[in-house]
Amino acid sequence: MKESRTIVQTLSDSAGADQAPADEAETGRTFAGVGVSPGRIIGSVLLMPKAVREPAVGELLAAGTSAGDASAALRTAAKAVQANLTARSASAVGAGREVLEATALMANDPMLVKAAVKLITNGASAERAIWDAAASVAEMLHNLGGYMAERATDVLDVRGRIVAELRGVPAPGIPFSETPFILVGEDLAPADTATLDPAKVMALVTASGGPQSHTAIIARALGLPAVVAAVGVDGLTDGTLVFVDGAAGTIVVDPGADEVALAKSWETTTAALAVFDGTGRLKDGHLVPLLSNVGGAKDAVKAAAAGAQGVGLLRTEFCFLERDTEPTIAEQVEAYRGVFDAFPGKKVVVRTLDAGADKPLPFLTDASEPNPALGVRGYRTDFTSPGVLERQLQAIAQAVEGTKAQVWVMAPMISTAEEAEHFASLCATAGLTTPGVMVEVPSAALTSASILEHVDFVSLGTNDLTQYAMAADRQLGQLAGLNTPWQPAVLQLIRLTVAGSVDEGHDKPVGVCGEAAADPALAVVLVGLGVATLSMTARALSAVAAVLASVTLVEAEQLAKLALSAHSAADARRLVREKLPILISLGL
Amino acid sequence: MSERTAVIASRVGLHARPAGIFVAAVGELPLEVTIAMAGEPADDAMDASSILSIMSLGASNGDTVVLRAEGEGADEALESLVKILETDLDAE
Asked: Which residue segments constitute the domains of chain B, with CATH numbers given?
């Protein structure tokens, strides 16, 4: 159930009411972007500060500034950052509170400050001195490994805050506010979104980024309205009141009565859409199991509560993203078992570590690759770091023992039948009985019949399949128009994947676990193309179920044909949506 | 110079929350306190008010550390710090 939250804020209680008001000339100004997560909301803007720029290497004390003055300024800045983090920790709870308390102590740490003051005495500027002093400390922690290595990032975070304080610019990271706000930025990195508090952030708006960017994915997972690629929106000032429409992709500055009415009606819609009965089916009774994509046990428990019929994608790398070293088998067993236990008797599809490109893992991936999306990522890390995959499969097999979940395992970034065969043999060695692969490289879609001779199922990862089919980086806002699974070429690849399964002859299932499955209109098209199961963020289950229940299989097949023959992605989307009147009545 | 030894009681060792509690307690004292692993020369001792120093010390559960301080009230101050180290702070 959605927690009750006041969606319409008034100017008087908005986060930035005491800050600069919107420019008069800005009133009613509209920004157009790409809507990536539905919802209509009014709130005040807080800007995501830009990352702190590194002071020039060898930057010296400015003329007229003594080492004593610079040291005093540094001590003042370190104290201010400590005070700020301590104040924030007071309002935090649990693990978040402990992290903030420890980070606050680091900000004014005698060892760190002394090391920096020594560099200032030798002539360095305060900014450069703290930059280098913190880098040495971070390196020392990193070399200690384990828990200490993970704290190295905290030291670097503190460093950025001290430099920002010395420069008199806002601290990096998601801004802090007592009251909820709409977060506006150029783009958000995975590290930023990890600390995002959905109780404080009402909506996400970015000037850059595409529909498959992290901003979009996290917004859908949290059920926050979001608009990406809204050029110029990062020029707004803190405290500006805006209306965000996450379906239409628009932002209106200083909204009027029309927008207030739209935001109010959205509250009614979300209440109506909050229920999924746990069985995905079409109007004619044709079953389409609806599963959930999860990153760990916490997600899995939520997904089960939302009615998910299993897990279609367990992103195992999310259990280990902040890690410097390979997790032990025991740690992995514990992480996986938490997910299995949430779905007794149900299917859980585990995807082996998908590191690389936008999800680097220091123990597996090479950050210096010129073209990481086309580099050693996903299954391919087995070429360069042999053993990690085998140990993960052993851990999965151990976690299966004693649980009631039906565990399937699949490898990401498979390009050939040969790779699928090798992965299936590794699974067999580990004692895992249901191997499968992801279809996200066009070559795998085109050869799915040969691939399915070696494995029991395939799952389409539409985000990567789209970026590779269209040769368009999913992080680039300028290419958002190309980067949509509504592209008829992407739909053709999905059709061919299903056709390959039919040719293979054993009725092996083709599922979808990409973001495409969370778009209710596209979900109808996917079912019409012959996709057996859909896996999505738990938030989308009820909307997808409601729309699927409004069509028969024959109707879904007709809509799929319509989309396949469209001349553009926009046409495909428009033609299908016109035939699904339920979308309008639900406000989707 | 006063000197006391303490055996680390916290199961996670002297980092994370236990380190934070210890450093905060040292910070409230009007004295300079150092910490070292037992058997290491006093010259290599670290500033006990620095969480980063404490973390780099890497003291685990069961390890013995040496606290040193000089000046009025040093004995009492070290006693209070030993008590903190010999409590399983992670359990509280």
From this structure: 2-91 (3.30.1340.10)
Q: Tell me the residue range of the domain where A382 lies.
A: 275-586
> Which one, of A103, A100, A79, A86, lies nearest residue A154 by Cα?
A103
pLDDT at A37 over 70: yes
Across the interface, which of A98, A102, A111 has its CB nearest the CB of B53? A111
Chain A residues lying within 8 Å of B35, measured CB to CB: none
For residue A3, tell me if it sits in a domain.
no
Rg (CA), chain B: 12
Q: How many angstroms away from the CA of A82 is the closest CA of chain B?
A: 13
- Asked if A155 is an interface residue toward chain B (Cβ–Cβ < 8 A), one would say yes
Q: What is the CATH number of the domain that holds A255?
A: 3.50.30.10
Q: For residue range A135-172, list pLDDT tens digits in order.
A: 999 998 888 776 777 788 889 889 999 999 999 988 88
Total domains in the fold of chain A: 3
Catalytic annotation present for B75: no
CB contact, 8 Å: A95 with chain B? no
Judge whether residue A69 has pLDDT over 70: yes
**Domain identity same for A359 and A451:** yes
**Contact (Cβ atoms closer than 8 angstroms) between residue A332 and residue A399:** yes
**Nearest chain B residue (CA) to A155:** B52
CATH (domain of A497): 3.20.20.60
Q: Residue A181 forms beta bridges with which residues? A: A201
Query: Which CATH number fits the domain that encloses residue A94?
Result: 1.10.274.10
- Closest by CA position to A483, among listed A366, A354, A373, A350: A373
Q: Which residues in chain B have their CB less than 8 angstroms from residue A155's CB? A: 52
Could you give the CA distance from residue B63 to residue B78 in angstroms, rounded to a whole number? 17
A431 plus A459 within the same structural domain: yes
Q: Are residues A235 and A285 in the same domain?
A: no
Judge whether A55 lies within some domain. no
Contact A111 B52 (CB under 8 A): yes
Backbone angles phi, psi at A237, to 5 degrees: -105, 155
Q: How far is CA B89 from CA A94, A183, B19, B83, in A?
A: 15, 38, 9, 11
CA distances from A362 to A149, A193, A327, A356, A395 (A): 12, 19, 12, 9, 20
Rounded Cα distance, A283 and A404, in Å: 31
Summarize pLDDT for B7-18 with one digit per residue, the tens.
Answer: 999 887 887 678
Q: What is the ipTM of this complex?
A: 0.87
